[in-house]
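Take a record.
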Amino acid sequence: QVQPVESGGGLVQAGGSLRLSCAVSGSFFSLKYMAWYRQGPGKQRELVADITSGGRTTYVDSVKGRFTISRDNAKNTVHLQMNSLKPEDTAVYYCNSRIGPYPWGQGTQVTVSS
């Protein structure tokens, strides 16, 4: 069963950077409308950024100008470059397809200390 595998999280000080990666096995990845989500402590999962098969991107207001989503269709991967991190970015980050989602992966923990 295809399931995204997220990596790249960790503990970082406020103002620091992290680059998350998500690998998805299987066919037709290049056609998938992919996204990064996050779930902070005691919060619901929220959409952070998405990218169409053609590379068009959108972001939630709270991360605009700080996060960049990208994809490598040759490697079936999607990335999230996170700069100027803030404590409120602390969450488990997940990737998934926005349409016809895969089973959720384990996510990767991002912790930003003040």
The chain has a mean pLDDT of 96.
